[in-house]
Amino acid sequence: MAYEPQYYPGSTSVGVNRRKHMSGDLEKLRDISDADVVTIMGHRAPGADYPSTHPPLAEMGEPDCPIRQLVEPTPGAAAGDRIRYSQFTDSMYNAPAIPYWRSYWGAINCRGCDPGTLSGRQIIEARERDIEEYTKVQMDSEMNDVALCSMRGCTVHGHSLRLDEEGMMFDMLSRCDLGDDGNVSYLKDQVGIPLDQKVNVGKAMSEEEAAARTTIFRCDNVSFGGEASERKFDEGLVALHHMWERRSKWGFRPE
Amino acid sequence: MGNIHTKKLFVKALNKKFGKDFDLAEKNTDYAPFKELGVLQSDRKKEFMAASKALEGKRGISMYNPYLHAGGIPMGQRQIVPYKLSTTEYIVEGDDLHFVNNPAMQQMWDDIRRTVIVGLDMAHEVLEKRLGKEVTPETINNYLEILNHAMPGAAVVQEHMVETHPGLVDDCNVRMFTGDDDLADEIDDMYLININDLFPADQAEEIKAAMGKTSWQAIHIPTIVSRTCDGGTTSRWSAMQLSMTFIDAYNMCAGEAAVADLAFAAKHAAVIQMGDMLPARRARGPNEPGGISFGFLADMVQTQRVKPWDPPQISLNVVAAGTMLYDQIWLGSYMSGGVGFTQYATAAYTNDVLDDFSYYGCDYGVDKYGGWGEAPSTLEVVKDLTTETTLYDMEQYESYPTLLEDHFGGSQRSGIMAASCGVTCGCLTGNSQMALAGWYLSHMIHKEGWGRMGFFGYDLQDQCGPTNVFSYQGDEGNPLEIRGPNYPNYAMNVGHQGEYAGISSAAHAGRGDAFCCNPLVKVTFANPALLFTWEDIRKGYGMGGAREFRAAGERSLVMPSV
Lengths: 255, 562
What we know:
The structure holds two protein chains of two kinds. By secondary structure, chain A is an alpha+beta fold. Chain A has eight helices and ten strands. In chain A, a hairpin with a 5-residue loop joins strand 7 (183-188) and strand 8. The longest helix of chain A is centred in the C-terminal third of the chain and has 18 residues, at 235-252. Chain B is mostly helical.
């Protein structure tokens, strides 16, 4: 029987969505052009050559090495690209993605990447053409909602702040704007440098859709522990209890 | 599940912060009015700008300008809110809680750094057995009178010496304390820390039983000396004055060999430093923050003595002391620099949030397990207490968007939730390792539920932490009381160390103990002459922020007026 990874327990929508993020089996909701993704990232102008830090691997005369024979380089590594990043902030008000699950998605599905996880932001670093590809997957897929998620290289505290009156996540640097037509546009790149032309990334999810697609447990949506008067633990919490107990007992080791 | 215990203590604070008519539960808001005002919302920022402008001409170089923040977009794109010091009525601006702006916070640290405890018995043995001199309560009183002349920086024995101005060093004092009630009765009140008067009867008996009939000196050198030099100075300054005082009080020959014994006792054999010396890579002498064990800090805080019936309150005051000392001063300035660490620390002692979370957990535990220190010390109990408390905490952040906004950083939230669980497990089981186990489980529940926690290194420490709670390996498995900021897994990041001190105190508060780690430290900081408000840490910070606290170590007496 072929091995089938079991990514995460639980039958709630949050459990299902977490499994989708980890497996990479994501629904594509929009198609933002390569050029627009590159513009928002802000590392190079669309169409410009990729700056490199070393010659293409094929020209470097690499040593005879079994690991090199086993591991095929990513396109960015093969070309000698520099390392670049994209970083996302996800609102705690039912944004589809959450930082650890962006990292799990990256670590499981993206070759040659370095995910970093914080409370208000999640960064993935990789060779430049590779990170552009990985960023586009995130922006196009159900991991992303244009009102509740945004690419932010700095000032990320909006993740825990109240939403504005239109339902947009707070951004001290006002990188995004909600137009009268309901479309959200980036006016600045991820570190807040104004763009020559705004980039339209489409319409936001409804509150109901965000609540259905989210991966965060909340007591006002999918609860992690049930009601205070009648606790009912999610399977994820039960599994976590088991891991904590094992870690604690393993450390004891009186031998 | 028993009764639901929730007092929502933070609601009053949030109403004071955001305005009494504010809908604290509304998740949407209009940010536009605040964006227009920016930093001008804050009286303190306006004061800073005016002060900077006034100084620029004098300095000849530019200074404070909040409009330089993040590409020309100033702070204050949302409502700038004040902070309420938990359980007090003090409301101050965030800036008032940076230790540079808060003299009470400085004095708290000064009171520790300028303190050593030195045994009297070893010196008395030298005098009696080696020199054949008589030591009586009368000679001790005479010695203490001379010592309180000499310790601030005055001369004895030798004439024509320079001395310090009493007005600059008036905070310096030495009092003795003893487990021998007969001796204590004979000591002049002004030179005695009276254990029987200061502590509840049961605590006094416990302390005296622990220290036996030994006698000790609580020495607080002048604040201005330890600020000019460092913590390592304290034992040296005190040892010189102690030795000279013995010579004077007991008519010794200044050059006789026994003086070396007295000096050795004062500097090494009989001295208790408040903090251990740190290894070369952290490079600090004794009596610096990185060497102060969690148990010692817990004993410095005096809430246990004045409110023994309120274990969570005892623990939360230790948390407040620890987050300020370890986060704001030690990690935030000694080790890192900058101003960001204050933001982490304030979450632990403002707006009654940690208080509410901790009392919820404790009420739940008392209801279920019968009383303080009565819950069995098992992983099952820790799991129960911690899971209920963490879920409650998370639900408050989810139900009150303004609360979430108040703790806008994940490591703030993680530290607060885990601290409430550590305090709960400590108070209920009376076991500090159980409290630590609860701390770690809470972090993991938080991370699992929200898919986010603190930051890289923060999360690392807590995700691997459960394995060192019960470890038998010496450098991993210390009782929490004798771990400290330089413990291998704790040395690197904010939002932990003060909480560790608090939850180690929780175990002893739950047991009704008189002290946490060292009875001598507990008695020394009961000295009524100490300047900082050791009985109520948060009140002290509030007084400092409200500009009501007068600290020692001032030089204005010998400078031209401004």
